[in-house]
Amino acid sequence: LLSIVEAVRAQGAGFRSLAEDIDTTTPAGRLVFHVFASIAQFERERISERTKEGLTAARKRGRVGGRPPALSAERSAEVARMRDQEGRGISELARLFQVSTSTIRRA
């Protein structure tokens, strides 16, 4: 929103919010608008910090994030063997193991 208001101001116009009673055509209105923008940015950064701290704490407790793999290490090795040694096709292996062809390509 800040960049939009700055672009409007560069064109010689102002921004006036009727709901929040903010008018960027006045110095006081610009000050209030920038204070609100700074507070919003601060809050976004704090949320990001807390999220990162939470993920770090979870990792220390042994928690692994993300989606579980579609194939176990053993099944992935079996796919690779069947593909490389037996010459089975990707589509055939995907049907056999009930996973996507992308998963088979990564195996």
Automatic annotation (TrEMBL):
Pfam families: HTH_7 (PF02796), Resolvase (PF00239). GO terms for molecular function: DNA binding; DNA strand exchange activity. Residues 1-62 form the Resolvase/invertase-type recombinase catalytic domain. Keywords: DNA recombination, DNA-binding. Residues 51-78 are annotated as: Disordered. InterPro entries: Resolv_N, Resolvase-like_N_sf, Resolvase_HTH_dom, SSR_resolvase. It comes from the Bacteria. This is Recombinase. It comes from Sulfitobacter donghicola DSW-25 = KCTC 12864 = JCM 14565.
